Structures are given as C-alpha cells and as structure tokens.
DNA sequence: AAAACACGCAACCGCTATTTG
DNA sequence: TCAAATAGCGGTTGCGTGTTT
C-alpha cells in the first residue's frame, strides 16, 4: 500500500548531512538542468548523491536556483519585508512571493538578524503613551470586530504607518497574527467597499475576503491577489473570470513595483491605508 | 596573541497539507 | 478509500567568521 519508501527512510544509512560541497552542487545543478526541478525523490536515485530528497530540494530552492539575489537588501526590500511581516506575520513563503529574487529562508534570516532588531529599536524610540494607546485601541478593535462594531484604532496623533504601529505594538511575532489579519481584512474590505460589486463568479474571492479569521486564509487571499497558482488557484480563476483584477492595482503596485524611488506606489498605499484606519465609519 | 563573545547564514528538524498507489 | 510518502513551510541549531576584551 502507499508509495514506495524514499531515501529518507533507508534507516538513514549512507545519507550525508552538513554543508554541500561544490562537487555535489555541480551534480545537482546539471541534473536539474537536464530534468528540471521537481520529483525530488528521484534526484538522489538518479544522481548518486548521498543526500535525501529533502536536502536536495532545499539546496536548490535556497541556494542554487537561478535568479537568486543574495545579501545587500535594499531599503525598498526592507520596507516591503517589514510591511508584509506586520500584515502577514511570519509567513516567509508568502512574503518571499513578493520578492521573487529572494528565498523565504533568506528573508527569514534577514528578519531574524536585522529587521527584528530594527523594528524593536523604532518601537523603543516611539512615545510609550502613543504605543500603549494604540495597543489598547487595537485590542479594543479586535474585540469589537467580532460584533462588527466600528472602532477607530488608528492613532492620528502621529505619522507612523498603522501597520508599522501594529508591528511595534506586537513585537512578539506570535502576537502579530491578530492585528495583522485584521489589518489585511480591513484593507481589503475597504477596497471592496470602494469598487463596484463584483460579479457573481467572484463568489469565492468574496468569501475569502470575509473569512480572514485565520492566517492561512489571509495568505491564500493575498496569494490569489498576486496570481499565485498554488493553493488558491480557484480563487484566482474566479476573480480573473469576473474581470476584477484591477481592483487591487494599488496594492499590487506597492508590493511589486520595484522602481527606484517607487515611493509613489508606496506613498499611495500608505495614504490609502492610513485613510482607512482613520475612518471610523468604514471600520 | 588568544580567549570570549556576537553575529550571520546554511542546513536540519518537526510538523501539516497534499499527493500517490 | 485510506495508508504512506512527498512537498513545502516555519522554527531552530550549529558552525564559520568577525569583533571585542
């Protein structure tokens, strides 16, 4: 019954671990050049590499894959990572999908070694009164959301982006999920409110928009917006059939636009985002 | 000069969702 | 239909290197 066992289950006998050698890299790359990535189970079998399939896949996706940019994160990339981390939490694969040249592992490492501290520093530099006020308002809004009660939890007294505030108010990543989910939900709900009603075929996307209770759905929806063909392909198809792709152009511009001072798109989203948060009627 | 410490990153581990036979 | 394996993800670890004492 089931699949035949792979190299992983060979009792671990003869499976090499630790850093890859240049020779192993060459073997792996030349095999993938001939056969393409995927079907990782067959890679060790056909190449003679004494590595498990999992290790081969990881080495390819995180290091050998063409087009990977390593190190030297630009301020723009940093901004995107910080922003998306505040929105999505530690969903590195989802964040990496917006930075095609970066791997999720690279982004995760960069966050853990640089950006987390940076955000923390910014947090400490922020007026504690503002922070506790925002934290209180965020919690209140979270509770109120369950009753579809409006709440103005954006603190208009400072000029800090609300999603950055969320990151500051919840430095512990495990606590980021709630405000992050809310932030995305509110952002999309306001988007939906500002555009004509979608066609009936957009049903699945609409359902997803209103089901942001858990991060997985948030990521699925965001992936759909980005045209991700994986888990949310049905939603993408539904939305594209309905011809509503342009609905999210502002968000897409902000997330994907890599032009040097591409601040226009970024400013747009910031402005729009702040406006949404500040609008007590909308929320 | 050398030991101690801090940092960055590649790779591993454990888990879940999906796929396969 | 279901058990077992794969693929993929996020958290964590361990090692090499740089910096400080």
UniProtKB/TrEMBL annotation:
Q: Report what the protein is called.
A: Uncharacterized protein
Q: Which organism is it from?
A: Avena sativa
Q: What is the lineage of its organism?
A: Eukaryota, Viridiplantae, Streptophyta, Embryophyta, Tracheophyta
